[in-house]
Amino acid sequence: MQPQEYGPPISLSVAKQVAEAAEAEAAANKWAMVIVIVDSTGHLVVLHKMDHAQYGSVAVAQAKAQTSVNFKRPSKVFEDALAGGGLNMRLLSTEGVCPVEGGVLLVADGKIIGAIGASGAYPTQDAQVAQAGAQAING
Fold first, then answer.
1. What does the domain layout of the chain look like in residue ranges?
2. Which residue of 4, 13, 44, 70 shows the fewest CB atoms closer than 10 Å?
3. CA–CA gap between residue 128 and residue 41 (Å, rounded)
4. Number of C-beta neighbours around residue 127 at 10 A
5. Which residue in 127, 106, 117, 137 sits closest to 40, CA to CA?
6. Cα 103 from Cα 86, distance rounded (Å)
């Protein structure tokens, strides 16, 4: 399998759609979340902090999104690798990796246009919110 290519950066209007879909999922579950959308270059497009979301989640959500876009994979891949232990523990020394579930790629026309990161609840819940956002465009 060839790695996906980077495409043009996500537009603000599409990033807002992704963030709105993610927020709807978080609100439906009564989770106070921070939702971050970065473009295909890893730069911030949307930072959405829901009322009562913990402040620390701002940096974590952005790190999850940047991890996904920079390494072309969900942040959960790194979490799973660390859970395996052994040589995988060297991931802890890899700069720019947030090894926590909740970062997901955003893909359009088969190319990476950005990523979404969510933080504020348990990692599986963060991932659920991020996936809901990604589904707004990934289908």
1. 12-138
2. 13
3. 24
4. 22
5. 106
6. 24
Neighbours of 105 (CB within 10 A): 22
Say which residue the tokens 């995988």 belong to.
88
pTM score: 0.94
- Amino acid at residue number 46: V
Residue 65's contacts (CB-CB under 8 Å, 6 or more residues apart) are 36, 37, 38, 103, 114, 115, 116, 117
Q: On the CB side of 26, how many CA atoms lie within 13 Å of its CA?
A: 30
| Cα(61)–Cα(23) distance, integer angstroms | 13
Give the CATH H-level superfamily of domain 12-138. Haem-degrading domain (3.30.450.150)
The residue among 127, 132, 121, 130 whose CA lies nearest residue 101 is 127
pLDDT digits (tens, 9 = 90+) for 71-107: 999 999 999 998 888 888 888 888 889 999 999 999 9
pLDDT along the chain (139 residues), means of 10: 83 98 98 98 98 98 97 94 87 88 96 97 98 89
